[in-house]
Amino acid sequence: MRGMLEPELLLQEARENVEAAQSYRRELGHRLQGLREAQRQIKESASQTRDVLRQHFNDLKGTLGKLLDERLVTLLQEVDTIEQETIKPLDDCQKLIEHGVTTAEDLVREGEVAILGGLGEQNEKLWSFTKKAAHIQLDSLPEVPLLVDVPCLSAQLDDSILNIVKDHIFKHGTVASRPPVQIEELIEKPGGIIVRWCKVDDDFTAQDYRLQFRKCTSNHFEDVYVGSETEFIVLHIDPNVDYQFRVCARGDGRQEWSPWSVPQTGHSTLVPHEWTTGFEGYSLSSRRNIALRNDSESSGVLYSSAPTYFCGQTLTFRVETVGQPDRRDSIGVCAEKQNGWDSLQRDQAVCVSTNGAVFVNGKEMTNQLPAVTSGSTVTFDIEAVTLGTASANEGGNFKLRVTISSNNREVVFDWLLDQCCGSLYFGCSFFYPGWKVLVF
């Protein structure tokens, strides 16, 4: 018997070793794939960085050459202008003197002829010459400026600009081994994804962040957030579709953005929250996550299309626009739809009125939240407290721990239900038009 058992044990051990080796090989394969992706990221980012540097410095050289050419043209034009403006009076003076020389030469020749004729029959010529000489004013000479009084053009060129430019060029541009910010966490939400990021460069002081996303099937990233926060919920996310996210930062006092972070891929498996369609008095957005109260004639509670809120999640309502408030207004959750009520201020429901009053199973609590205004967010966080027997659950009641937050204030209480609820409906009711609420 022992002789038969030992081979079986040996065979079993061999099989286990084969399975362990196969698992080990698979894990090594995953690590090898990850290593190749890391190598590819280094090589591709290095190649891209080289291209960016070459292109930037080529553009810089072209721009600097153009600027130097433009400056040279400007200075040459200044030389031309000064030359033209200051040479003209001298040219006019030259013409005047040359005309005087010609006149004097003609007068000399005429005078010599008159003198040679003597006083006889040439007397008339002498008289004419003398009269002509007196008219010319031979003692009047034009003034010629001294060389020190006329422009002597020169160019003042400070060679220290080369040192200044050289210092700037030597300090221009840096190469970083990694971007200063990286995406830290992607958290799925119904119809959305919360994106969180953080700085990884302690020497970098961020003034603003810029978040972009795209479907993995798209080639184009689009801006979804610019601001100083390090967290943002990206809405209008289709379930079970991969999206890529990337973030960059702008340094304090700077205009340019940093390099992009390494793109991270995320998706949401949670069904988006939607309001019920076709309910009189409300119109919905195309994705049915925004409800607008547009008719004051009808009344009633607008519910979610399905019980899509599960304990452990955070349900958020954001009030986009406000209308006239009413104490019967309500935003909240309930165990089931109950038609015929004009508010969630009823049994088996918890809600907040637009004036900040909190209602649990139709009873108003002492604690109150701030009144709802345009841009306010109201969040519900619900956790199951007990799931035991009837005696352990206070006579068969099911207890939930509810936290409602609004405008940095919160109330916490236990909510008793008649039976266990794996999921909840949400709803709202407004008695006057103008209220618009987004749910996510």
UniProtKB/TrEMBL annotation:
GO terms for cellular component: cytosol; plasma membrane. This is Cytokine receptor-like factor 3. Residues 11-55 form a coiled coil. Residues 179-272 form the Fibronectin type-III domain. The gene is CRLF3. May play a role in the negative regulation of cell cycle progression. It comes from Oryctolagus cuniculus. GO terms for molecular function: identical protein binding. Belongs to the cytokine receptor-like factor 3 family.
